[in-house]
């Protein structure tokens, strides 16, 4: 991984309006090589995120954590595959890269699972193995890519943040991942830049040419 720093989290932001986009936001300062922080440091972080996002229940997570502790090498490999899928999805959705890696993961997930009927309709059922979070991520990623409103995909206007979202604002003019965070910080920066420029212009206007 090319992240500049690594830091696990107890909870993860859910500001994107989509599970797949919230996955992208498990990197902080994505657009800054110097500040970039990877929050999926170990396989347990993937499990914690998946439980929070509703992709796993606590029972399955506990079983997968037990398996991961028994086979650390396999867990590390699975973490790497989740990160690869995350970046392939980001590249396809935001940089126009090929969707083939995401489609391939989706096909593998579908082949590994089966559709089961529950009270609310049909749902995917998978074996409880280390690949379970990645399979559910692959389904969520393709579900998003097949939406008919992908023109609403947005990315924070902060030059370094890089967090992404689905813009569901009434006027489709959302600029910030979090208005009270990146929004406020940039508004303050822009305000002081305007004040500085105005002061500089006033100084130039009143200067006396000898």
TrEMBL record:
Gene3D superfamilies: Jann2411-like domain (1.10.3300.10). InterPro entries: ABATE, ABATE_dom_sf, Znf_CGNR. It comes from the Bacteria. Pfam families: ABATE, zf-CGNR. Residues 152-194 form the Zinc finger CGNR domain. This is CGNR zinc finger domain-containing protein. It comes from Agromyces humatus.
């Amino acid at each position: 991984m090319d992240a500049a720093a690594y830091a696990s989290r107890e909870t993860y932001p859910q500001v994107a309006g989509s599970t797949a986009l919230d996955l992208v936001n498990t990197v902080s300062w994505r657009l800054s090589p110097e500040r970039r922080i990877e929050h999926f440091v170990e396989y347990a972080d993937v499990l914690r995120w998946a439980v929070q996002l509703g992709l796993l229940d606590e029972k399955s997570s506990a079983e997968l954590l037990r398996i991961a502790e028994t086979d650390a090498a396999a867990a590390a490999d699975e973490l790497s595959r989740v990160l690869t899928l995350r970046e392939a999805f980001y590249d396809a959705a935001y940089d126009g890269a090929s969707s083939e890696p995401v489609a391939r993961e989706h096909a593998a997930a579908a082949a590994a699972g089966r559709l089961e009927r529950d009270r609310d309709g049909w749902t995917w059922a998978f074996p409880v193995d280390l690949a379970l979070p990645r399979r559910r991520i692959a389904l969520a990623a393709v579900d998003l890519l097949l939406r008919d409103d992908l023109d609403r995909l947005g990315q924070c206007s902060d030059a370094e943040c890089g967090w992404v979202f689905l813009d569901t604002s009434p006027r489709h003019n959302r600029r910030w991942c979090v208005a009270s965070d990146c929004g406020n910080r940039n508004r303050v920066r822009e305000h002081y830049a305007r004040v500085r420029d105005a002061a500089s212009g006033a100084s130039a206007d009143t200067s006396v040419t000898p």
